[in-house]
Write a sequence for this structure.
């Protein structure tokens, strides 16, 4: 069954078609969402949200892009929205809590892996998403450009800037 | 860090940066299925049920509205009788009945909108510290939502829903209230997120506020 047939059956309420569509795309969506969120529980919830949102909007899918591109676009939006909500919530923590978090974050960390994690986390949304999609998940520039709705050139320059910032953050490591 | 080492770090990222473990795909599917397909089926069933009992429902609704109108008109008449002249009482009684009927629907709809707004405001923020409320609190919210769901369906089949804007709002509220009515026991962040998304995506709160403002009580 091709994507178009699957889509029309899902819109008609066919659960088996829904499961087939989910099975075909869930692993890659989950992987992207997990790498972007860094937490298994959160990745599970956000993957579910991605598919629930996708199914409810399937009638609006015009087929201009591949279904996978459309799904990944929803996934990136769901993760970004969740991240924004978290940041807003974190701003509401008390000053004391904020101080203790800052003190913890300020400690020197000898673990390169943790430093890479933190450096990627500190990148801007656009840089982090581009770097994770390209260097971690293996998307091509063309695919990223389509998912994020930006020109391919923008994608390349974002990746280059993200790598430069990462290199700067890891400059202290000599190994 | 030297260039060569940095290139190695980048090349190793797929295996070193947050390695992806096995995900509970079946469990996730069950939640997706419940949130999308079960809700869709419940919606279709309730529509079917409403259509099936429509004549009875219409009769019951008419009776209820009739009683409300009767009370409304009677209280107005008795108030008028105490303070007005015979001429003004005659003028009141000769007004067409369509006006009180429209007022009754408008009153009922406004009261309903206010109750739904109160319920949505009482709903905790999914990222807030109060997101894990007691099971009793969840049941209370779910019970209130169930009651309002019945009113929503009655209003959807009443003349109040003839306005396409109001009909659209009632449709969206039906979905949101059905989600809240399903909250049982420990509320999960995912449930609240879904409800909040439905509220945000449909711009429900501002539409409700605007509906209350443009549909004031007939008092």
């Amino acid at each position: 069954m091709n994507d178009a047939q699957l889509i029309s059956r899902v819109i008609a309420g066919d659960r088996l078609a829904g499961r087939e569509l989910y099975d075909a795309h869930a692993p890659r969506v989950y992987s992207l969402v997990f790498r972007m969120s860094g937490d298994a529980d959160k990745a599970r919830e956000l993957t579910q949200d991605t598919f629930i949102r996708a199914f409810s909007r399937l009638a609006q899918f015009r087929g201009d892009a591949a279904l996978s591109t459309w799904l990944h676009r929803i996934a990136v939006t769901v993760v970004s929205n969740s991240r924004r909500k978290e940041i807003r919530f974190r701003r509401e923590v008390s000053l004391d809590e904020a101080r203790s978090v800052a003190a913890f974050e300020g400690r020197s960390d000898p673990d390169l892996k943790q430093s890479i994690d933190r450096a990627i986390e500190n990148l801007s949304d656009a840089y982090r998403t581009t770097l994770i999609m390209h260097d971690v998940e293996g998307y091509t520039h063309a695919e990223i450009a389509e998912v994020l709705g930006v020109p391919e050139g923008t994608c390349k320059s974002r990746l280059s800037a993200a790598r430069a910032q990462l290199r700067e953050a890891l400059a202290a490591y000599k190994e | 860090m030297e260039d060569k080492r940095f290139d190695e770090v980048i090349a190793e990222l797929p295996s070193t940066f947050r390695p992806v473990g096995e995900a509970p795909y079946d469990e996730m599917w069950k939640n997706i299925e419940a949130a999308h397909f079960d809700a869709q089926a419940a919606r279709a069933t309730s529509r079917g049920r409403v259509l099936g009992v429509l004549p009875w429902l219409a009769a019951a609704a008419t009776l209820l509205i009739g009683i409300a109108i009767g009370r409304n008109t009677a209280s107005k008449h008795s108030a008028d009788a105490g303070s007005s002249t015979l001429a003004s009482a005659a003028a009141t009684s000769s007004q067409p009945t369509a006006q009180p009927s429209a007022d009754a629907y408008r009153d009922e709809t406004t009261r309903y909108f206010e109750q739904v707004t109160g319920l949505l405001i009482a709903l905790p923020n999914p990222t807030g510290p109060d997101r894990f409320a007691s099971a009793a609190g969840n049941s209370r919210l779910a019970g209130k939502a169930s009651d309002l769901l019945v009113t929503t369906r009655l209003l959807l089949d009443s003349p109040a829903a003839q306005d396409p804007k109001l009909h659209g709002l009632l449709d969206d509220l039906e979905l949101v209230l059905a989600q809240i009515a399903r909250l049982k026991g420990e509320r999960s962040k995912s449930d609240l997120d879904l409800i909040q998304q439905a509220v945000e995506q449909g711009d429900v709160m501002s539409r409700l506020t605007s509906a209350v403002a443009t549909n004031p009580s007939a008092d």
